[in-house]
Design brief:
Layout lengths: L3 H23 L2 H23 L8 H14 L11 H4 L7 H34 L4 H25 L8 H21 L2 H20 L8 H19 L19 H4 L9 H12 L3 H18 L3 H19 L19 H29 L4 H31 L1
Length: 407
């Protein structure tokens, strides 16, 4: 008989293989170079920010608490539970505790890595702002690792209860108690906070050990894992196609004036189809608007002008790269194959729509760069790069992809 922890190990192995498959698309040469510039720019800006700190200002401790609290909420429980488990694993429900033990350990390690990075970034800030030494910083690290352990243990406990009756308890355990402990650590005594965190974490670990004979809340467990994987897949969808994501169509009546601008004749048949589908589909359509908004925000908040301009170049590339695969969106629709429109016309229509959407994105980013007071020479150079990107994506690259699809 296969043990439940072996099942988790097998699923984890398959999960890591799947994630590795997508990561090779994320860390392509272009993105790695851009990421190096981005991290370097942020590091430079952070260094300049630290030099301006005078210490003992009222806002410094609250900022550190908020950052640590956000870091604590990142890296949720990865159960890798499947929808079919509700049926096929139901007879082994009382053995799932050993399965979740493996999920707890894996998730805790991933979560602690996030907290370690957060702590490492905050080290110079805390040293300058409140004058902490190495012993206090180590004490804070112990506090956040203990809090993460207790937080993760509570995620396991939640799998066995109907949460609609325990929302207050979840709010207190996941947010209020960590907030109190972090306030104690940064305003009073970090080692007293570590002791309190140890007691709370021990209590939560003990509670997690007592639920092995309880009934699993299958609906919550499956929904929780589906939501977690969807967040991961949405991130990967910024760089490549993700078959696991399925979109929904929305009416979006407010876009009707935009659609009326298109000619309704045989020569613009696919222009209408592509634009309506792109803007109404919750997949590529929502992704397009999210990327434009994120790029807009980054340009406005990044103090370094060159890094801000570089971000616009990256996001124009990301948007164009995401739109290109939509060319074959209608290939599975049998009715499009009987339209009296040849493939050359279809390609021309699609190219025009992609260029239109990229033009709109560039217009929004141009307005953002002007608001951010980026110098005119940098803006002009950036616009030239946009034109080159747009041409490469919509002419040679699109032609190559279309040829591969048709062959």
């Amino acid at each position: 008989m296969v043990k439940m922890n072996k099942i988790f190990q097998k699923r984890l192995s398959n999960h890591l293989v799947e994630m590795t498959k997508y990561l090779k698309y994320v860390f392509n040469d272009f993105f790695v170079i851009a990421l190096m510039f981005f991290v370097g720019g942020l590091g430079y800006a952070y260094s300049g920010f630290l030099k301006q700190l005078s210490g003992n200002l009222w806002w410094e401790r609250p900022v550190a608490i908020v950052v640590l609290l956000i870091g604590l909420q990142l890296g949720g429980l990865a159960t890798l539970v499947k929808s079919a488990d509700k049926v096929f694993m139901a007879p082994k429900e009382y053995q799932f505790h050993s399965y979740f033990s493996g999920a707890f350990i894996y998730s805790l390690v991933m979560g602690m890595i996030i907290d370690l990075i957060t702590w490492f970034v905050l080290m110079p800030f805390l040293s300058i702002s409140i004058g902490w030494g190495i012993s206090q910083l180590i004490g804070l690290l112990l506090v956040i690792l203990l809090l993460k352990t207790g937080w993760m243990a509570y995620q396991v406990v939640k799998l066995y209860f109907q949460l609609n009756h325990h929302m207050v308890m979840a709010f207190v355990t996941e947010l209020v108690l960590p907030l109190i402990i972090l306030v104690l650590a940064l305003y009073f005594n970090v080692w007293a906070a570590a002791l309190l965190a140890l007691l709370i974490t021990a209590s939560l670990l003990y509670a997690a050990s007592l639920i092995k004979n309880e009934l699993l809340n299958w609906n919550y467990t499956i929904d929780h894992e589906d939501a977690r994987m969807n967040r991961i897949y949405h991130f990967y969808s910024l760089f490549t196609e993700v078959p696991e994501l399925s979109g929904r169509i929305h009416r979006r009546k407010y876009l009707d004036p935009v659609f009326k601008l298109l000619k309704r004749d045989q020569g613009h048949l696919y222009s209408n189809l592509y634009l309506r589908s792109l803007l109404r589909d919750s997949g590529p359509g929502s992704l397009y608007f999210r990327l434009v908004i994120i790029a807009l925000i980054l340009v406005l908040i990044i103090p370094n002008q060159i890094i801000g301009a570089l971000m616009t170049v990256i996001f124009v590339y990301l948007v164009g790269f995401q739109l290109i695969p939509f060319y074959e969106h209608f290939d599975s629709n049998v009715f499009t194959h009987i339209y009296p429109v040849n493939q050359k016309r279809q390609l021309q229509n699609f190219r025009a729509i992609v260029q239109l959407l990229l033009l709109f994105e560039c217009f929004v980013l141009l307005i953002a760069m002007l608001i951010a007071r980026i110098t005119i020479p940098i803006i002009l150079i950036t616009m030239v790069v946009w034109l080159i990107e747009g041409y490469v994506l919509t002419v040679p690259y699109l032609n190559k992809k279309a040829k591969q699809i048709r062959n």
